[in-house]
Write a structure and sequence with these properties.
Shape of chain B: elongated
Order of helices and strands of chain A: HHHHHHHHH
Number of domains of chain A: 2
Mean pLDDT of chain B: 81
Strand content of chain B: under 5%
Distance between the termini of chain A: 65 Å
Radius of gyration of chain A: 22 Å
Distance between the termini of chain B: 50 Å
Number of domains of chain B: 1
Structural class of chain A: mainly alpha
CATH superfamily of the largest domain in chain A: Winged helix-like DNA-binding domain superfamily/Winged helix DNA-binding domain
Largest interface: A-B, 57 and 50 residues
Helix content of chain A: 55-70%
Oligomer: heterodimer
Number of helices of chain A: 9
Low-confidence stretches of chain B: 1-18
Strand content of chain A: under 5%
Order of helices and strands of chain B: HHHHHH
Shape of chain A: elongated
Largest sheet of chain B: none
CATH architecture of the largest domain in chain A: Orthogonal Bundle
Radius of gyration of chain B: 24 Å
Chain lengths: ~220, ~100
């Protein structure tokens, strides 16, 4: 038995709403874990990350008609999440966005060239058994000015290409690479003697060696 | 990520252990280290950097520490959302969308 398409506007509206809901559910199901992971890395705490996920998918729901499919859904959602994050953080703090200069990352004393916690000969998974290292890395990323943090998270943690990061952030590749380099140098410095000694354990730590080991 | 970096031993053999890090050359190298690690540089520039690293132990240690930093970032696990939270968030989103006349 066939059914004719209804001409009743309310029926059509209900069908549109039903389609939107289906599309939303599909996008939500396939990408919520990805966006939560990104949000968690950007925000650094669970509740803010959940808020950002909600804001992202609500904006995605509202803007779904504008999504033309010429970008990957994940790139589109990363873009919405990044903008939402900037808005949320602006509301919360209003801290000025600091620029990072290359000169500030030039080590000035012997201990600053190497990482303070040894990772030599360890796989990354083994290295992360060290709670101190995990905390130091998380704190270093959290301390990054947000526009640098976003680039580092998208490129080095989420694994996007420089071009994709540029699409998400509205930057050209050159600017993405420049920010990424400064962000990496910042985190490296935080994990060196200069960054890590303040407020940490008094016990002497092992240091990295110059070469060898499987940690690559 | 698998650039062959000259060893400190070789650098010492070249008599560069007293090299003072902070010179213009080191700054020039520092500017390019991410591109070097990401293998984005032309082979002649890579060779130029490798030669410098062989002659400057501090830069050699520095590039290894930067490489380790990037590896740590790439492998840092992130916490997952529980299935309950996934469901609660979905309901909150749909409720908020409905409250704004979308449903």
């Amino acid at each position: 038995m066939s059914t004719r398409p209804s001409k009743n506007p309310r029926d059509q509206a209900n069908r549109t709403t039903g389609n939107e809901r289906l599309q939303f559910d599909r996008i939500y199901r396939d990408h919520v874990d990805l966006i939560y992971r990104y949000a968690n890395r950007l925000c650094g705490d669970v509740e803010s990350a959940k808020d950002l996920v909600q804001e992202t998918f609500l904006n995605a729901y509202r803007g779904f008609k504008d999504f033309r499919g010429d970008a990957q859904v994940s790139t589109w959602l990363y873009t919405i999440a990044s903008r939402a994050c900037l808005r949320m953080r602006r509301k919360k703090k209003g801290e000025p966005e600091r620029e990072l200069s290359l000169e500030e990352f030039i080590p000035t004393s012997e201990g600053e060239f190497r990482l303070q916690i040894s990772v030599d000969g360890l796989s990354p998974e083994e290295a992360f058994q060290n709670k101190e290292l995990r905390q130091a890395l998380d704190q270093a990323i959290e301390k990054l000015p947000r526009k640098y943090r976003m680039v580092l998270v998208l490129r080095d943690m989420e694994g996007l290409s420089a071009k994709e990061v540029g699409t998400v952030m509205g930057l050209n590749e050159r600017a993405v690479k420049s920010r990424l380099h400064r962000a990496r140098l910042f985190v490296r410095r935080e994990l060196s003697a200069r960054g890590i000694t303040e407020g940490q354990s008094e016990e002497p730590r092992a240091t990295t060696q110059t070469s060898g080991g499987s940690y690559r | 990520m698998t650039k062959k970096v000259p060893t400190r031993k070789r650098a010492r053999a070249q008599g560069a252990s007293s090299h003072e890090h902070n010179t213009g050359r080191c700054l020039h190298i520092l500017q390019r280290l991410s591109a070097y690690i990401d293998d984005e540089l032309a082979s002649d520039v890579c060779e130029e950097i490798r030669q410098h690293l062989g002659a400057c132990p501090n830069c050699e240690v520095f590039v290894e520490s930067l490489r380790h930093t990037v590896t740590l970032c790439r492998h840092r696990p992130a916490p997952a959302l529980s299935s309950v939270d996934r469901q609660v968030l979905r309901e909150n989103i749909l409720r908020a969308a409905g409250a704004q006349g979308r449903l």
